């Protein structure tokens, strides 16, 4: 997909600040004005896939494994005392780039922020949502 900004980074036609490059997943810095914390890193599958639901198992496994290694590196290199893994699939979830990606965000006790959604969703579901989910697995 030649219009995807992450595909352009992966193929070298757009610049990036690289953290790691592997066969099925890569890690790089987000644009400076969108960084949530020092060291905030994006982990992206090499193969273009729009979101979590369309990702093939190899790409998904490679991304989660690389995200874990990035989080460990944040603790070692940046003295982060925690990390947050964020992923949005679909525009209604806040996904702005239509290429699966994970934000790995380092956290410290003095950073004064939280990366948990506030307030909770106002959407009303008629019935038991967890029972409806469980039925999908039967």
TrEMBL record:
> Which positions fall inside the HIT domain?
5-114
Per the record, the GO terms for biological process are: methylation
Q: Name one Pfam family in it.
A: HIT
Q: Read off the PROSITE patterns from this record.
A: HIT_1 (PS00892), HIT_2 (PS51084)
Annotated GO molecular function terms are: methyltransferase activity
Keyword Methyltransferase listed? The answer is yes
Q: Which UniProt keywords are listed?
A: Methyltransferase, Transferase
Which top class of enzyme applies to this chain?
transferase
- The EC number on file is 2.1.1.-
Give the location of motif Histidine triad motif in residue numbers.
Answer: 99-103
Q: Which PANTHER family would you find in this protein's record?
A: ADENOSINE 5'-MONOPHOSPHORAMIDASE HNT1, HIT FAMILY PROTEIN 1
Give the protein name, as stated in the record.
HIT family protein
Q: Identify the species of origin.
A: Curtobacterium caseinilyticum
Q: Which lineage is the organism of this entry classified under, starting from the top rank?
A: Bacteria, Bacillati, Actinomycetota, Actinomycetes, Micrococcales
């Amino acid at each position: 997909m030649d219009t995807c900004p992450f595909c352009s980074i992966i193929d070298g036609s757009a610049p990036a600040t690289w953290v790691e490059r592997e066969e099925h997943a890569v890690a790089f810095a987000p644009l400076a004005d969108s960084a949530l914390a020092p060291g905030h890193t994006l982990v992206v599958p090499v193969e273009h896939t729009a979101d979590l639901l369309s990702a093939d198992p190899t790409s998904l496994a490679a991304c989660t494994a690389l995200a874990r290694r990035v989080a460990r590196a944040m603790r070692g290199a940046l003295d982060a005392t925690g990390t947050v893994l964020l992923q949005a699939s679909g525009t209604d979830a806040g996904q702005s780039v239509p290429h699966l990606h994970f934000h790995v965000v380092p956290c410290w006790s003095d950073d004064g922020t939280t990366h948990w959604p506030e307030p909770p969703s106002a959407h009303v579901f008629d019935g038991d949502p967890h029972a409806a989910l469980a039925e999908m697995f039967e």
